[in-house]
């Protein structure tokens, strides 16, 4: 599981059990990467609500958000997250393993749209060196059709992934897929 004491789906009670039931209902299981947040039910609830909002985002596609998570995690050396999101791209988005490998090597070679690649590039730039982003970078994303809200949501998603990688790697969350 992890080196942090967490609650398993089998032993969950109260609010944690309720949240786990929602996750089980939506995803078919409760990933260990989510279980790690059970040490604090407030954070578990917050994390689950956030996942729900990003998965239903009106503008950011599932392949784009999965690429954000995969490529941010690649920089953060979080194998759990890299592989989980590569699997999502293959199994849910219909990408080939070759397309995923090409994306991991250079996101510009991904099947994402041109506008998505511009936004992904901005997210990667900001998560790798936040002070390196310029107003011209934001304008390029706007010119590609992204609203400032979309830009904020995508960058926030990448920033949250940096934090997620720290939690998953730091607490040695075991792979469950």
How would you describe this protein?
With 177 residues, the protein is an all-alpha fold. The protein has two domains: 14-55, no CATH class; 62-167, AhpD-like (Up-down Bundle), CATH 1.20.1290. The chain is built from nine helices and no strands. The chain has helices at residues 14-27, 32-35, 41-55, 62-75, 79-91, 97-105, 114-128, 135-143, 148-170. Helix 1 (14-27) runs parallel beside helix 3 (41-55) and helix 4 (62-75) runs antiparallel to helix 5. The two termini are 12 Å apart. The mean pLDDT is 97.
Structural class: mainly alpha
Average pLDDT rating: 97
Number of strands: 0
Q: Distance N terminus to C terminus?
A: 12 Å
Mind telling me the CATH class of the largest domain? Mainly Alpha
The percent range for strand residues is under 5%
Write the layout of secondary structure elements.
Elements: H1 14-27, H2 32-35, H3 41-55, H4 62-75, H5 79-91, H6 97-105, H7 114-128, H8 135-143, H9 148-170
Helix pairs in contact: 1-3, 4-5, 4-7, 4-9, 7-8, 7-9
């Amino acid at each position: 599981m992890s080196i942090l004491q967490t609650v398993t789906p089998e032993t969950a009670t109260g609010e944690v059990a309720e949240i786990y039931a929602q996750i089980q209902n939506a995803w078919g299981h409760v990933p260990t990467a989510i279980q790690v947040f059970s040490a604090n039910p407030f954070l578990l609830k917050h994390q689950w609500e956030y996942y729900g909002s990003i998965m239903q985002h009106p503008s950011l596609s599932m392949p784009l958000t999965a690429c954000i998570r995969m490529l941010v995690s690649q920089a953060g050396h979080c194998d759990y997250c890299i592989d989980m999101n590569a699997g999502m791209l293959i199994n849910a988005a219909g990408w080939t393993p070759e397309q995923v490998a090409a994306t991991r090597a250079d996101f510009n070679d991904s099947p994402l749209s041109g506008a998505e690649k511009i936004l992904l590039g901005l997210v990667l730039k900001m998560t790798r060196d936040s002070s390196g982003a310029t107003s011209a970078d934001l304008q390029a994303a706007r010119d590609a059709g992204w609203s400032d809200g979309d830009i904020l949501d995508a960058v926030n998603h990448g920033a949250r992934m940096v934090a997620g990688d720290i939690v998953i790697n730091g607490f040695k969350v075991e792979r469950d897929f």
